[in-house]
Amino acid sequence: MTLVAGVDSSTQSCKIVVRDAATGALVRSGRAPHPPGTEVHPDAWLAALARAVEAAGGLHDVEAVAVGGQQHGMVCLDDDGEVVRPALLWNDTRSAPAAAELIAELGGGDTGAAAWADAVGLVPVASFTVTKLRWLAEAEPGNAARTAAVCLPHDFLTWHLAGRAGLAGLVTDRGDASGTGYWSARTGEYRRDLLERALGQDAVLPRVLGPAEAAGRTAAGAVLGPGTGDNAAAALGLGAGPGDVVVSIGTSGVVTAVAEVPAADPTGAVAGFADATGRYLPLVATLNAARVLDATAGMLGVDRDELSRLALSAPAGAEGLVVVPYLEGERTPDKPDATGAVHGLRLATATPAHLARAAVEGLLCGLADGLDALVAQGARVQRVLLIGGGAASEAVRRIAPAVLGVPVDVPEPSEYVADGAARQAAWVLTGDDQPPAWAAAGTTRYEAAPDPAVRERYAEVRDLVARRPG
């Protein structure tokens, strides 16, 4: 049996799966936590990777490895390849003013947004790497001047697995490069002028490999795949193709569709990413997803299962109670300084069940807005796949079809980002034109009559939010 390994270096932890390269059957797995926060030293990812490898029984018998990683994180290296400062993660919103500056510099307003969308398929928000580089240049000019190379979390891990062979050895893939703000999925080229505009200077950038191009070998001799960003890896792990929409409820909420043509949305709602197969992955992301469930459960003093039971015991629409779940600001819509809000509170709705229902519906309404935005960009919706930690909630699964307006298929639980990385590793081994045809995950379909009143009520109040103090 030929074995391959896939790594998911996510915001919260590092997961590894070891699978049969021919069939995709799971052989063993391991995981280790990452430190909390929106700023993390990349060495913590290396330490977690080592612990996850140990928990998985080692990689001594693995023929190929690939890394899927959280997107957008800013990793700055000096001339010697040393980390300049802790990485700013995708969910660090301190670069929101920098995003506004970059849009203004290309014309401002709709003109500037359209210029960015045309150049790189996305409009800057605090999540994207390009805005973090502008923040660095303004807030820490000394560190910006020391920055000789810029890479992403998955690039950093792949580089270390390959032996850290100089800055010229940095590599990435289309999927992750497309989330930086200075690489275009449409042209397949870096926009170094935009990099220099943000950072104030040029820098070494990772070479963009093809979907099944080897990135080198590990010290143990295993072939390294190019890796990819977590969203592209999840789509590959699910075997998603054109017509499939993946809704992921994890630390972030993501709605993405596999497409044959690139997207360029001047409103900024849809980011025109690439996928890990040579296609495209238009994507809408929210900052607030599964943690909305955790926060609500914490307020009510219950666990996730009881939160689900409470939500399902309340009527649809929670009798007008609405939770706008901008607990950490928001990325889509672009409201980095917004706070969450509760509207429609009356004696009749001041119950744990109503609050639980409203929290689930508010979370799903934000994702439904994302689905609408993808459709407006030409996405075909033939199947909706619901994944992520939040998809384990029975309330989420049962309420989602009513809010999204379409049936949803919930695949069997799995580490789909790590699975996609493993599938990529197997693809690099075979050298075929397409990734190996592993058996698709079994799914359970959930259906419910669409309930447009829930979204209409949410739309009435979603902008009635306050700014964070200070």
Fold and architecture overview:
It is built from 15 helices and 24 strands. By secondary structure, it is an alpha+beta fold. The strands form 8 sheets. Strands 1, 2, 3, 5, 13, 14 and 15 form a 7-stranded mixed beta sheet that branches. Helix 11 packs across helix 13 and helix 12 crosses helix 13. It is globular, with a radius of gyration of 21 Å. The model has no long low-confidence stretch (mean pLDDT 96).
> What percentage of residues falls in helices of 4 or more residues?
25-40%
Distance between the termini: 58 Å
Overall pLDDT confidence: 96
Radius of gyration: 21 Å
Task: Please tally the β strands and state the result.
Answer: 24
Main sheet specs: 7 strands, mixed
Instruction: Output the number of helix runs.
Output: 15
Strand content: 15-25%
Structural class: alpha+beta
Task: Give the overall form.
Answer: globular
> Which consecutive residue ranges, at least 5 long each, have pLDDT under 50?
none
What distinguishing features does this structure have?
single chain; 470 residues; alpha+beta; 7-stranded mixed beta sheet; 5-stranded mixed beta sheet; 15 helices; globular
Element layout with pairings:
Blueprint: E1 3-9, E2 13-20, E3 26-33, E4 39-40, H1 42-55, E5 62-69, E6 75-77, E7 87-88, H2 96-105, H3 109-120, H4 129-139, H5 141-146, E8 149-151, H6 153-161, E9 171-173, H7 174-177, E10 183-184, E11 189-190, H8 192-199, E12 207-209, E13 216-217, E14 223-224, E15 228-229, H9 230-238, E16 244-249, E17 253-257, E18 271-274, E19 280-286, H10 290-300, H11 304-313, E20 322-324, E21 341-343, H12 352-376, E22 383-387, H13 394-404, E23 408-411, H14 416-430, E24 443-446, H15 452-461
Parallel strand pairs: 1-5, 5-14, 5-15, 9-12, 16-22
Antiparallel strand pairs: 1-2, 2-3, 4-7, 6-8, 10-11, 13-14, 16-17, 17-19, 18-19, 20-21, 23-24
